[in-house]
Write the structure tokens for this entry.
Amino acid sequence: MPTYEYECEACGHEAEIFQSMKDKALTKCPSCGKNKFKRKIGSGSGIIFKGSGFYCTDYKKTSAPKDSK
């Protein structure tokens, strides 16, 4: 689940919210309570594979071509 950045247009409060991609964007500011809380549009980030199970040997190697005589 991604982390989204939000900013209130009324009071300037900023927050990073961890929510599902299926969830609707939040609108109510947790600081001032006004419905001016907007999701910022970011450039995103690259995919980072962490943890066990991600190795360079996980990909199928192509065999060298056989010599034809």
